[in-house]
């Protein structure tokens, strides 16, 4: 009887052991399942020439990814300029499903398609992550009669077309719309604003020689000229004053009683139909980038704010912004 009892106990232990072993194997199979990670070089497209916001963002991200060992694979940045970004977008659209191609983008990805200048919009790509917020600055010559936005907009309310605003983007795109959005909140008839497009990069020269009155541009593009004493910034479009030398002296539109902001979001997109595991991988890596001290130093250097959004948050944000921009373009008669 004792032998029978021992035999039964032994069989029970074997069954229990087999069950545990099978469970562990299943758990390790789940936990140890191979998550996607890049096995080939990654290409980031800056859809513009060297030195601009897209190019700088792409190169700074690639630099931190590599130097901080956030991503092991080689990362290359290539410039594909043309069409306000449309040439680069078309190139990435042709890499459907690839987890090794992406591009950096900002509001023109919404503006350009709405203007009918590109067949590709944000819906045609895979939003991966947004990483920074940049802002607009409205500058005038150092000896201009206006010392703040309210003085400028008071004159524009009287005769909007008497004041010429220059920007590097085309009518209906970023430099134009960022100014229009703030001017509208200040009570200016935005349909009568005289905006000229500087496609040759001489907007600052035009401002300094008196050919135009106001320069609508990015905050970082004004710093050196303010230091040199050739221009003054009447206002920036951030919620609060920016941090950093010179930047901290720029007043916001909001603190001047104009209840409006404009954010130049900047983030990364993959081709259409990108694999979910690849998206998850890059979301995690861009969050690590955003949280790193190295990238915080870069944000401070360029006057950027932290603005991380994951893929789903980014998609919702873009859909909302597209609706706002469409309304403004329709008011200006610039919608498609």
From TrEMBL:
<feature type="signal peptide">
    <location>
        <begin position="1"/>
        <end position="21"/>
    </location>
</feature>
<keyword id="KW-0732">Signal</keyword>
<protein>
    <submittedName>
        <fullName>Tripartite tricarboxylate transporter family receptor</fullName>
    </submittedName>
</protein>
<keyword id="KW-0675">Receptor</keyword>
<dbReference type="InterPro" id="IPR042100">
    <property type="entry name" value="Bug_dom1"/>
</dbReference>
<dbReference type="InterPro" id="IPR005064">
    <property type="entry name" value="BUG"/>
</dbReference>
<dbReference type="Pfam" id="PF03401">
    <property type="entry name" value="TctC"/>
</dbReference>
<comment type="similarity">
    <text>Belongs to the UPF0065 (bug) family.</text>
</comment>
